[in-house]
Task: structure prediction
Amino acid sequence: MAGSKEIRSKIKSIQSTQKITRAMEMVASSKMRRAQDRMRAARPYAQKMRTVISHLASASAEYKHPFLKERSVRRVGFITVSTDRGLCGGLNANMFRAMLREMETWRDRDVEIDLCTIGSRASTFFRRLGARIIGQASHLGDAPRVEDLIGTVKVMLDAYNEHHIDRLFLVYNEFVSSMTQRPVVEQLLPLASSPEDQLRHHWDYIYEPDSKEILDHLLLRFIESLVYQGVVENVACEQAARMVAMKAATDNAGELIEELQLASNKARQAAITQELSEIVGGAAAV
Amino acid sequence: MAMTIHLDIVSAESEIFSGTAEMVFAPALMGELGITPRHLPLITRMRPGEVRVRLPGGKEEFFYVSGGILEIQPHVVTVLSDTALRAKDVDEAAAVSAKEKAEQALANKTSEFEYARAKAELAQASAQLAAIQRLRQRTKR
Result:
C-alpha cells in the first residue's frame, strides 16, 4: 500500500480539481439561464416573419423566388453550428455523428457537399476530415449577434443563388431541456411552404416599392434569423451540456476523494499497528 | 375612447415593444409614414431612423431602428427591425471576411468597403442623434 503522505497529496490535488469543476458547473448553469432567455427573445421575430412570408408567397403567384423553388440536387451545403470550447460532454461529438450520417446519404447519391462552420470545434473537425469548407465564423462568445453571422450566411446564399449548391441545411443542437440536447438537421433552402395558408387570403398588401424586392429582403432576413436561432439554441445547449458534464466530474471527484480517504486511513492504521508490534517485539526480546 | 392599433416591434435578438398605440410614425423607404387604425394592408422596407409611437393618453415613445421591414394590417402593425445597420457592401464585406477566414488568409481586404461602411455608419449616427435630441426635448418639457 502506498504511503499515507502520497495519498494525502493526491487527495489535495483532486480536491482542487473538484473546486474548479464545481465553479465551472455554477458558471455554466447561470450562463444557461441567460442563453435560454435569449432563445425565447429571438422567437417572435421568426414567427412574425414566417406568417408574412407565407402570405407573400401565396399572394404573389406570378413571382416565384428561387429560395422557394425545388430543383434537382447536385451539390448540397451545410451550415454547422458547434461550440468554440470543449468540456461539454458529448454535445459536439453527437452532432458530428448525426451530420456525418446525413453527409453519407448524400454521398451515396453522388452529391457533393460544401460546408460552412460556425464555432471552432466544427472547423477543426471537418478540416481534419478533409471536407470542403467555404465559410467560417468562430469565437462568437456567449451572446452571439446577428451581425457576426451575416458573412457565413451570405456565402451560402450566394452559392445557392449561383447554383453552386441546390439545397442548404442547418445543423445544430436543439435545446429540449437542460438534461437533453438533440442534434437536428434542418432544411433551410428551398423553404418548405405551408400549404394550409394558400386559400385563406382574399386580400393583398400595398407594396412599397414592389413585392419582389420586399420578398427578397424578407427571405434573406428570415434565413439569417433561422441561423441566428440555431446559434443561440446551440449556446444554450453548450452551457447545459457543460453543466451536466461538470456536475458528473464533481461527483466523481467526490467519490475518488472518499476512496482515497479510506485508503489513507488504512495506511495510517497499518503504520501504527506495525510500530506497536515492533515495540512489543523489542520489549519481548529484552 | 380613441381607436387604437396593436404594435409589435421585434428584432432578431429581442422583442422591443408590444402594446397598443393611437398612431405610429415609421420611416419607410419612400418617406415617413403615419399609421392610424384601419390603415390599408401595406408592406414596406424601412430606412434607419426612429419609430414614433403615440400611446393612448397622448404620451409618445421613440424607438430607434436601423432599417427593417414594416408590415401594416388594419389593426396590427409589425416592425421587423434589423439589429444593426445593413448596407449591401457591408454584407458583402462580411461574406468576404467569412470566406477569408475559411481560407485562413491573413490579408486585410476591408479597405475597399471602408467608404460604404463609413457612409452607413454616418447615417446611423445621425439618426440616433436625432432620436436622442427628440428625447431630450421631451424630458425638458
Remarks:
- Chain A touches chain B at residues 38, 41-42, 44-46, 48-49, 52, 56, 116-117, 123, 133-138, 145-147, 150-152, 154-155, 158, 203-209, 213-214, 217-218, 221, 224-225, 228 (CB under 8 Å).
- Chain A has a mean pLDDT of 87.
- DSSP finds five helices and six strands in chain A.
